[in-house]
Amino acid sequence: MLNGSEKYFFLILTLCLGITLSTNAQISDSTTHLSRKQKTLVYSEIGLGLATHSGLYFEWYSGYPMGKFHFFDDSKEWLQMDKLGHCFSAYYLTVMGHQAGLMVGFNNKQAALNGLIFGAAFQTTIEILDGFSTYWGASVPDLIANTVGSVMAYSQARKWGEQRITMKWSFTPTRYAPMRPNALGKGFQQEFLKDYNGQTYWLSGNIHSLTGCKSKYIPEWLNIEIGYGADGMLGGFGNQWTDNNTGISYDYSHIKRYRQFYLSAGIDWIKLAKPKSQWGKMFYSALNCLKFPFPALEYNTLNHRLQGHYLKF
Hints:
46% helix; 6-stranded antiparallel sheet; 8 strands; 18% strand; alpha+beta; two-stranded antiparallel ribbon
């Protein structure tokens, strides 16, 4: 017998499954039938989505009550670092969907559409689950960030057949996680996902591809990168909170929350490795998500001055 929360969950998955199946059918036009490999990819993506969201529900959402669908304004949370996380995830889900589509024989238009559907459906399902959870709520800023990430990947795939502007991520452990491990993580494996203070998100553009410059002094693989990070955050909206288990209140308002902006260089691994196979292109596309350490300039809103880093991770 399903309880109320499980009924909501399976209703959400049924709706998302129907939307995904009907939309994927549009990938094949009236004169083209999906091959066996293409059908396998589509159903694998659906299966991956169902398995992931089922696991997420039973590991996370089932511990909290679910009710009427509602929205929650989290636009000022974590100095918008979480929004960049949404954008980053949607971007790479779409990129991987595009690469996988090319591997099974879709033309570029069909493969790009496959990536867009996969990325958007995957992220939107999470937002719907949030919307039915009484502890959270659906977030319009999250939905916008998801859309920006997927459209960024899709539009480049359609226009150029490649990603000339990519998103990248880097992480350095901070001193804040031990102060609030339940929110920021216990140990490196949790901290690199949960501690926004240590994360930096980057927009990375390939100089050769974007400018058409073929100078022998500028390597074909060299990218220019703009990064955004934030520091001093022990909570989503502020540095004061009460522990739900112990009732103890904490006040770290003396720690200033501030934004960080970076200018650096980077590597386009596809341009450097020049892979011939689609498997190789998928591998190096995934590797491109990580920021390679390079010198960087930082400007932050704490001291309002430029400072240099010999290597920015």
